[in-house]
Amino acid sequence: MAAARPILGRVLPGSSILFLCDMQEKFRHNIAYFPQIVSVAARMLRVARLLEVPVLLTEQYPQGLGPTVPELGAEGLQPLTKTCFSMVPALQQELDSRPQLRSVLLCGIEAQACILNTTLDLLDRGLQVHVVVDACSSRSQVDRLVALARMRQSGAFLSTSEGLILQLVGDAAHPQFKEIQKLIKEPAPDSGLLGLFQGRNPLLH
């Protein structure tokens, strides 16, 4: 009997969507590497717009946690308000209206809360989840590390922003490649990931 073919986790613009989770003002001074995380998420958003990948944005209880930070560059996106520690209930209608959807690219905070629960809910729906590791963080680096490991154990793909961007564009002959090349010319800012991944970390093996 032939072995089951592994799921490769390829991403294509026509079957992907970008989720931006809860990058709000009140988190600015509490989340580790918040400016770097938002900067990378903003890069993902710019690429999504160039490649016509749909984007969905949520805000967790904005009356208390404030609006989405302006540096994300999310003007023109209508944030969906939520209190649940998952994006999926608030985005249910949007997901149901996209039968071609296969892959969700996930950015935001916090890794052990809304990112983890969103990932599990999406996997439960049969979707492939690509956690943009340099665009996700937590107040605690321990929570961040264990959440990344937990999501990987459950079947999510851990990817960097540049890796996903190059998968989406696919070819240097793509008409938008030169614009995208400008966005990735400088490496993504350091968000403390090297310290999480270095050595033989048992959580990530």
Automatic annotation (TrEMBL):
The Isochorismatase-like domain, residue ranges: 16-162
Record family assignment: Belongs to the isochorismatase family.
Encoding gene per record: ISOC2
Lineage top rank: taxon: Eukaryota
Name the record gives this protein: Isochorismatase domain-containing protein 2, mitochondrial isoform 1
Record text on subunit structure and interactions: Interacts with CDKN2A.
